[in-house]
Design brief:
Two copies of one chain form a homodimer.
Chain A (H helix, E strand, L loop, with lengths): L2 E5 L4 H12 L3 E8 L6 H13 L2 E8 L38 H16 L3 E3 L15 H13 L2 H4 L5 E3 L7 H11 L21 H13 L9
Parallel strand pairs in A: 1-2, 1-4, 2-3, 4-5
Helix pairs in contact in A: 1-6, 6-7
Chain lengths: 226, 226
Amino acid sequence: MKRAVVLLSGGMDSATVLYLAKDKGYKCFCLSFDYGQVHKRELKSASSIARAAGCLHKVVRFGLPWKGSSLLDKKIPIPQRAHQVSAKQSAGQIPSTYVPARNIIFLSFALSFAETLGAKDIFIGAHCHDYSGYPDCRPEFIRAFNLVAQKGTRSGAQKSPIRICSPLENKNKAQIVKLGKKLGVPFHLTWSCYKGEKVPCGRCDSCNFRAMGFRKAGFKDPLIKK
Amino acid sequence: MKRAVVLLSGGMDSATVLYLAKDKGYKCFCLSFDYGQVHKRELKSASSIARAAGCLHKVVRFGLPWKGSSLLDKKIPIPQRAHQVSAKQSAGQIPSTYVPARNIIFLSFALSFAETLGAKDIFIGAHCHDYSGYPDCRPEFIRAFNLVAQKGTRSGAQKSPIRICSPLENKNKAQIVKLGKKLGVPFHLTWSCYKGEKVPCGRCDSCNFRAMGFRKAGFKDPLIKK
């Protein structure tokens, strides 16, 4: 059975990617990160989703001895307006929730895990529609990282490189909700809100994108009670 | 004063790169990793070298929840024969000391640190002569990672990307010793041996390369007493 590493944040995108990879016949190994984010709510979600999917789940813990993001530093306010920007517009509009090089760090650990497992595919839920303007979600970044996987690993040097797969790359949030519904993603276990309170705040970028996705797809978000 | 992040392992190559960057007029911020390596001797050396150079030094700590290398797993023996291989030969001859995706992980953290500092250059002591056949020391890997820095970071999206500089890329160990001597590198503070004992073992790959470098350059290694 072919193996894959799936980056699982606990959000709806990575949960959908996990169920998609399972649907494609992969034995999935989930990977999450405890990196000093201001709340740990999403890690609990990641753990529940991996359990629901029947997959092994590893958590890498690291402390960044620097800040530079509102997701790492409680003193920086989390923006409350949804940034609907195109990839072209994104350069000047990167919000304070951007964590410097976060997806690069996550994919690097995923490469290490995949090499150790003998997995040939890494799945990531990055997409560039309805996104917050993060440079490390763009297709050109994924392509560049694939080149790193080819040139900088044992498997790459042995002409059997690990591939980074971002199957949501061209999907918007509504399309992701529809796909997830079809695949049986347990959306009630996922968590998107940047704030880690008991219920989603309903105001941050991430809540706004999620609400828009469910609304446009014509489904009710199971996390929203009223 | 322009800033640079310097990956500092505690070995002679990264120490030479630090002194080279200082010589080029950079204010250097050193970065090391406590990642579960079987000995911590090199971290003490990194700290001493950064202090001698008068530079700020940060250590990122992470635990890899997998092994896959003799530098992470005491049960795997460390090879005692020097692998003198060319980059072309390396594919089939990667030794057990290769840590899956290690330099990729290190450079990812360096990118995050550099973005936070506003540094535009990252220095790494990778080189492909007299090396152990590590794929993540090859020039083509450094080029691929430069593309990641352009495509996957805020500074890259804003057309002011961080550059990965590997000034030792085409130098062999003897040339590195000569350069270090010219720059005043405190070689007595550096540590190369894969085993973290009181004195270098003199038998592992890393000891062999170091000894060859000093011998060919015509200098005495200050770590070797007899």
